[in-house]
Amino acid sequence: MTAVTDILKSKTDSAVHSIAPTASVFDALQRMADKGIGALLVMENGAIVGILTERDYARKIALLGRTSAATLVRDVMTSAVMFVGPTETSEHCMALMTENRLRHLPVVEDGKLLGLISIGDLVKDIISEQKFVIEQLEHYITGHRG
What we know:
Elements: H1 4-10, E1 18-19, H2 25-35, E2 39-44, E3 47-53, H3 54-62, H4 73-76, H5 90-100, E4 104-109, E5 112-118, H6 119-143
Parallel strand pairs: 1-2
Antiparallel strand pairs: 2-3, 4-5
Helix pairs in contact: 5-6
């Protein structure tokens, strides 16, 4: 079982992108598009106050007839942000994300943001672990035949 801290270390891009709650949703969407990401942490005075995702946009802007230029991030962000500590396992994070229908989890230790993991990061890690186990089993099986 991989710890979240190891997943963060293995990421090729460990940057955590954020936006202020007073920014427009349009600016947030532009930043997500520029960075090729699906969510931004909403930060105020160094603290996480929310998260804005593509899902928030679809459900709280597009479907409600609002405009992204006239709506502030704080008006549509998800305020109740779930997070994990660096010692949590990938399996626990996957269960948490599946259970709560999340795609992103901030990693926080002692109130400090360490990084952000996505469902894609977890899937990549779990596939890597499974490949390793399969290789070891194949080696074991073929090593005892000859």
